[in-house]
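Exercise 7.
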Amino acid sequence: MIRKTASARWTGTIKEGSGHLSTQSGALSDQPYGFNTRFEDAPGTNPEELIGAAHAGCFTMALSKVLEEAGMVAEKLETKATVKMEKEDAGFTITAVDLELKATIPGADREAFFEAAQTAKETCPVSRLLAAAEITLDAELL
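Solution. The predicted structure, written as tokens, is:
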């Protein structure tokens, strides 16, 4: 079993308070976040963009594996994940993640590429975790 950790520290109220996020690896170390970074586009991070980064990274890495198994090696894979959060009756909810992929794969078979991208979207661990949200994929083979 693989275990990775991250931590959050918060002080104050929801709107005036502030927090800091850290990761086991040190990639994030006391990274500031707060209401203004989450809802008002102030500098800093927020949980939704971190989920997007995790999903884009996981999907892209999974796609590399699926492509290799299909006999293709990508020169470049670039994925953007857009995490959508909406206010619902129960409160704010992450409702969707849109993945946008641009791939450069010399000699790739288009049909095999799109099949590999779909397989990676469905099987990467972060996609599985986010299964309650709608996950879309717009894949482009350059």
